[in-house]
Amino acid sequence: MERNFVLAINPGSTSTKVSIFEREQEIKTFKIDHRKEDLEKYKKIADQYEYRLRLIKDWLEAENISTDALIAIVGRGGLLRSMPGGTYSVTDAMIEDLKVGIQGEHASNLGGMLAKGLADLENIPSYIVDPVAVDEFHDIARISGLKEIPRKSLVHALNIKAVSHRRAKELNRNFEDLNLVVAHLGGGISIAAVEKGKIIDVNNAKEMGPFSPDRAGTLPVGDLVKLCYSGKYTLNEMKTMLQGEGGLFSYLDTMDGREVEERIKNGDNYARLIYDAMAYQIGKEIGSYATVLYGHIDNIILTGGLSYSNYLVDRIKEMIDFISEVIVYPGEDEMEALNKGAQRVINGEERAKIYEDEVSISG
Ligand SMILES: Nc1ncnc2c1ncn2[C@@H]1O[C@H](COP(=O)(O)OP(=O)(O)O)[C@@H](O)[C@H]1O
Ligand SMILES: CCCC(=O)OP(=O)(O)O
């Protein structure tokens, strides 16, 4: 059988998205939603491997897509060591780091594992593209205020790069000439200063910045330390409280923006206060990242699932539209961006980077 198709795999905290592409054309796409109780069974993210693999195989079978027809498999890259952007071959050293969660636990760690697991069965290449560990910081952005704790670049790099390219195309400008503040508003929130195509600073979507649907974001640090040593919570309970059950979930017991809006429509003033506070923190953070670019900004872009919300977008816009024109791209272009990254290598326009050559393994 002629191998023409690329399979793209994007594991998220609540879903696994899969798409089949023939060159630039998306042929089929599917979002497998995972119930909280189905994922809670697994202690570590890597333990979900067999479960998600089975679901992907079942989908391929149901769609009558034989793995004989795949030319390559590309996955969303995870919390690897700090690395430059681009398309990477999935290597054994990368798999080791994904398995242990070298920079932490996140569903995207499964992207490279699933891509390589399936690709090896067919003897075809596997790739990841612009993983969440992309690090293009200026040195000044690494300084936190405590020598032992440097600031980290953990960011929705794939979508941020994809929407920046999209805006450059619309403006008929080079991506490398644009200065943007891009806010990815999803399960986690990244607010990034993109200077001439590079993400030179970002809040760290796992641990800092505005609170998000499931994350606490930046907290008053003294009170956080007290809570850690209060004896009330284990390390794992603290981690879950900050990421997974923080943010909107901590106040409202839901991480679904649509449900919060429904409550607001029904007159729930507490839900309105919390949702408005999330918008307020996002607006404030965007203002802060505008200063990183000294105010020289072509556009501010709002993207991610929460950007479907007119209510939230309006609250944010009224705080920031004095800075620059605000462009809204709801949802994400991640599947297309994964495919484009793989196609550039398949077509010979770019060579796949090798993880071990790009990162400091001893660090
Ligand atoms: N129409 C909508 N209105 C409000 N919130 C929405 C809407 N659509 C999606 N969301 C919210 O967006 C968030 C998920 O965003 P998404 O970009 O899919 O997440 P991730 O970054 O984890 O992939 C969830 O909180 C979801 O409830
Ligand atoms: C760690 C950055 C990536 C991230 O937060 O992704 P989700 O919003 O999909 O959880």
Overall, the morphology is globular
Residue share in helix: 25-40%
**Cross-sheet strand order for the largest sheet:** 3-2-1-4-6-5-12
Strand content: 15-25%
Number of domains: 2
User: Could you tell me which ligands this complex binds, including any ions or cofactors?
Assistant: adenosine-5'-diphosphate, ligand LANB7ZPL
Return the average pLDDT rounded to an integer: 96
The termini sit apart by 44 Å
Written description of the protein model:
It is a single chain. The protein has 363 residues and is an alpha/beta fold. It has two domains: 5-136 and 335-358, Nucleotidyltransferase, domain 5, CATH 3.30.420.40; 159-331, ATPase, nucleotide binding domain (Nucleotidyltransferase, domain 5, 2-Layer Sandwich), CATH 3.30.420.40. The protein is 39% helix and 19% strand. It has 13 helices and twelve strands. It has helices at residues 36-40, 49-62, 92-100, 109-122, 157-171, 221-228, 235-242, 247-252, 257-265, 269-292, 310-320, 334-346, 355-358; strands spanning 5-11, 15-22, 25-33, 70-76, 87-89, 126-129, 179-185, 189-195, 198-202, 299-304, 326-330, 353-354. The strands form two sheets. A seven-stranded mixed sheet has the order 3-2-1-4-6-5-12, sandwiched between helices. A five-stranded mixed sheet has the order 9-8-7-10-11, with helices on both faces.
